[in-house]
Amino acid sequence: MSGLSTQAEPRRVIAALLERGDKDKLATYLDRLPPAEVAHALLRLPEDDRGRLLELLDPEDAADVLHDLPYEEAIARLEDLDAEDAAAIVSEFAGTERAQYLAELEDEDAEPILAALPADEAAAARAQMRYEENSAGYLMDAAFLAYPEGKTVGEILADMRANAERYAEFDVQYAYVLSAGGALRGVLRLRDLVLRPRATPAAEIMLPNPVSVRADAPLDTLTQLFDHHSYIGVPVVDADGHAVGVLRRRAVAEAAEERAEGAFMKLSGIVGGEELRSMPMLQRSLRRLAWLGPNIVLNMIAASVIAAFQGTLEAVIALAVFLPIVSDMSGCSGNQAVAVSIRELTLGVLKPTEFLRVFFKEGGLGILNGTILGALLGAVAWLWKGNLWLGAVVGGALALNTVLSVLLGGLVPLVLRRFKVDPALASGPILTTCTDMCGFFLVLGLASAVLSRISL
Amino acid sequence: MSGLSTQAEPRRVIAALLERGDKDKLATYLDRLPPAEVAHALLRLPEDDRGRLLELLDPEDAADVLHDLPYEEAIARLEDLDAEDAAAIVSEFAGTERAQYLAELEDEDAEPILAALPADEAAAARAQMRYEENSAGYLMDAAFLAYPEGKTVGEILADMRANAERYAEFDVQYAYVLSAGGALRGVLRLRDLVLRPRATPAAEIMLPNPVSVRADAPLDTLTQLFDHHSYIGVPVVDADGHAVGVLRRRAVAEAAEERAEGAFMKLSGIVGGEELRSMPMLQRSLRRLAWLGPNIVLNMIAASVIAAFQGTLEAVIALAVFLPIVSDMSGCSGNQAVAVSIRELTLGVLKPTEFLRVFFKEGGLGILNGTILGALLGAVAWLWKGNLWLGAVVGGALALNTVLSVLLGGLVPLVLRRFKVDPALASGPILTTCTDMCGFFLVLGLASAVLSRISL
């Protein structure tokens, strides 16, 4: 590799090989580089170069590169490629993955790619794309092995040997046993096929009445199912009880991981659930403003409460010091309650209707924590200004507002879940606006009520 | 089941069966209930009753119940049981899971349970507990099948048949091929054993030089490995290249999911990464105060900046309205940058040393977003009070503080990662304190500088 030290920064090596158009060396180099290094280096190339690189590589190698990239970036690259190039790459993916990538694209980007795919792959992808995101049907492998009840171990093994090549992509560990009508009767573990005499009929070694899952079952149901059972996979059935695919534990675990990562990002105000600093600046800015914009409006509404109490503030300017503290601390307390509610809803140990449970569990805790925090802040205010009434106003306001914040924080996710709004995204702004307004109102309202005592 | 309608609330049915001490009916009832319902019902029983229930059930049934409970709750229950009862239940777990549960317990709780376990189970658990949490060694299955290079397909299948019962718990899909010295030479897929002629020697059908992973590799490395490769599992080797276990894709995905859930909770101020409302009130309160306590102190320090500018505030009371807005909006902007840095670090596309990249990527965006938000807030201030200078002060302060917040938010997780502090837990408070102080200082400092212009 003349002029290219292997010690060189991967980004420079890749840029140089891309410049030369040496697709074979490029493919070899990328394949040997640890996956995180591939992503790290490529995300530092100009966006156009990333596109050119995928066009230059053979589809199989390009598919490998897409696997190394963060999901959001892989989707962006597919969107930018010609439909034919994208189809050639997507065709290298496994069936389920192909459908999931295509489902992530806008319709106008997905349709030309589907049209350029081999007919059978396109039909299979379309079928799977019809399922709701993260449902059993969306996450399952639609390719599976199935045999009629009467087949013997020997016959099944012979069929497997004869079709070894074709079945290789099925990632075979199970086969289903079906009735003549196609209804799921049992599951054969590959292990049992190996370990049992060859004359045994399938019906005898199958696990009958297997646990199965409906294709429309949502992710929460699926995570709870796999928590309960130690199965590696379960059959997926349609409304008529016909087997339509196999859902693997790892597909569920990976989807749950992605959802948790997305929730983390949304909670922090990354609206789409993902941002990479390699994205165009304007796109990053607009996405962040989509969160900041509504927030600044809500903030102004909340702060307008302060404006209404201008006279009180003028009389006791020290109150201005405590307003941000009360607002911030109430936000913290409320966010803790939000997180616990979201978590309990995900685990299934809290139902979206259980308002009373949350009310009492959070109310009790709010009184406890509110008293402690209020006493602390009140004492500081008292000592600072030597005015007990000021301490009582500030401490009382924080105590009351803490109770209110944890109640609201605990309950808002339940309400949002019932209205099918994502609690990770919307709970924070709703909570903060309400607790800010109430906090300001409590501090300034209480102060106004005892103004003669504190404006000394 | 006299007097117990099957329509009754599961919690009441369970309480009644527990009261009667009818362990068989209880076990059957719990086994038939969907797992989320089991957790939902049990978490609504008094804590003592949950303990009594586990003592009453046979260890196998109790182990099933623990699987249905949230992890944190299952750990708490094991802590409360007698060591003998806990050992009998833990003994029903798979080996890896047993080690992981025991590793989660305090040493003083784990030791008596280990002492009460069968010697071989205890030794295996101790060996696995020595690995760092979420490393390959911690997550792997230590039980695996291995054969010498010379064995044939026929011999291997015969061994598998002869030992079917014993191997059943291995969850067999792969076998390793080892050298005489125990070094990993290749991997045999069970599939290939089934599909190849029986006289073929293992060395010929094994996948040679398999991708393997060191036992001390951390979770980030493991998630990136499985993103890159489509393997179901990879062999784990020690420093000498000897096979010590098999790491499955789903174990990695499940660990990554748990970590993401924990990060979500920590970001919201649930310090331990988990809270359930079924925990004792005092424990919940103390855990939340562990986060709120330091926060209120930091808040007071930040607000002390306001106290220093009392004169300016007295002259322009309207400034008190804008202080919480600037503080809150800067916090929002900074948290977005924090989330993106944590995410990029996890994905491996950002290294903890890349301060300059973050500086420029966030700086540019901060100038853009700061200008837009500052202009908006400044315009509102101007229009409200009809004072252009006031608008300039407030808008300029928000613009500058936004730049500062995104820089700080982007960089703090990198610094924390280098000092091995969890960025999800510590970034928020550090960020908010700094941006609050700077925000207050900018608004009031700028106002003081042009006081004669705005105090009309």
Description:
2 copies of one chain form a homodimer. With about 450 residues, chain A is of the alpha/beta class. Helix content of chain A is about 70%, strand content about 5%. Chain A is built from 24 helices and 7 strands. In chain A, the strands form 2 sheets. In chain A, strands 1-2-3-4 form a 4-stranded mixed sheet. Chain A has a 3-stranded mixed sheet with strand order 5-6-7. In chain A, helix 5 (about 60-70) packs across helix 7 (about 85-90), helix 16 packs across helix 17 and helix 20 runs antiparallel to helix 21 (about 355-385). The longest helix of chain A has about 30 residues, at about 355-385. The radius of gyration of chain A is 30 Å and the shape is globular. In chain A, about 50% of the residues are buried. Mean pLDDT of chain A is about 90; it is low at about 1-5. Chains A and B meet through helix 3, helix 5, helix 12, helix 14 and helix 16 of A and helix 3, helix 5, helix 12, helix 14 and helix 16 of B.
Please describe the structure with a list of short key phrases separated by commas or semicolons.
homodimer; 456 residues; alpha/beta; 4-stranded mixed beta sheet; 3-stranded mixed beta sheet; 24 helices; 7 strands; 68% helix; disordered N terminus
